[in-house]
């Protein structure tokens, strides 16, 4: 799917199960490539743009997918709002995605406890104003390298977030070079992260 356009939802696809597909340069207001799909596995997303929400997709679960150079105001690669049955992104890679909020992934739920988790994922060179890689999303067994936020949370930003068994290397922000959140951090490694306030966590 290449260079498709939708004025509102899903530049390439609206409502489907997506497997083994490639999406390049698709554009929409909501979900540059996909919107309101039920699952996405083994797929690649490059240079898609969602003007407001979800540079590439609004879909969960995400399994074994790659996202490179996607853009949106909220969630450079992924955006989701609300309460859904499945809240996971697994075995996926995010490189050079950009947003104002959540350079790679953005989750907004009307709850004080976010329950969307990135599991065994890699985040590299993503950037945003808040949450260079993740906004409102937990991390387990994931790796964050050289992500940046102009304000808070070079890798992760949000309320009541949890990070476990994850590695943070070379992330930077004004506040919270790796993580800007109040929550639990368990068995994580922090190397060479930078900030004016809280080089690793704030």
Structure description:
The structure is a single chain. The protein contains no helices and 29 strands. The chain is mainly beta and 202 residues long. The chain has an 8-stranded parallel β-sheet, with no helix packed on it. An 8-stranded parallel β-sheet has the order 3-7-10-14-17-21-25-29, with no helix packed on it. A 5-stranded parallel β-sheet has the order 12-15-19-23-27, with no helix packed on it.
How do you describe this structure in short?
This protein is mainly β and 202 residues long.
Task: Tell me the layout of helices and strands.
Blueprint: E1 13-14, E2 17-19, E3 22-24, E4 27-30, E5 34-35, E6 39-41, E7 44-46, E8 49-53, E9 62-63, E10 66-68, E11 71-74, E12 78-81, E13 88-90, E14 93-95, E15 105-108, E16 117-119, E17 122-124, E18 127-130, E19 134-135, E20 138-140, E21 143-145, E22 148-152, E23 156-159, E24 163-164, E25 167-169, E26 172-175, E27 179-182, E28 185-186, E29 189-191
Parallel strand pairs: 1-5, 2-6, 3-7, 4-8, 6-9, 7-10, 8-11, 9-13, 10-14, 12-15, 13-16, 14-17, 15-19, 16-20, 17-21, 18-22, 19-23, 20-24, 21-25, 22-26, 23-27, 24-28, 25-29
* H and E order: EEEEEEEEEEEEEEEEEEEEEEEEEEEEE
| Mean pLDDT score | 93
Structural class from helices and strands?
A: mainly beta
- Which range best describes the helical content: under 10%, 10-25%, 25-40%, 40-55%, 55-70% or over 70%? under 10%
Distance between the termini: 41 Å
Q: Round the Cα radius of gyration to an integer and report it.
A: 15 Å
Mass-distribution shape? globular
What is the oligomeric state here? single chain
The major beta sheet can be summarized as: 8 strands, parallel
Total count of helical runs of at least 4 residues: 0
- In total, the number of strands is 29
**Unreliable residue stretches:** none
Widest sheet: strand ordering? 2-6-9-13-16-20-24-28
Q: What portion of the residues fall into strands of 2 or more residues?
A: over 45%
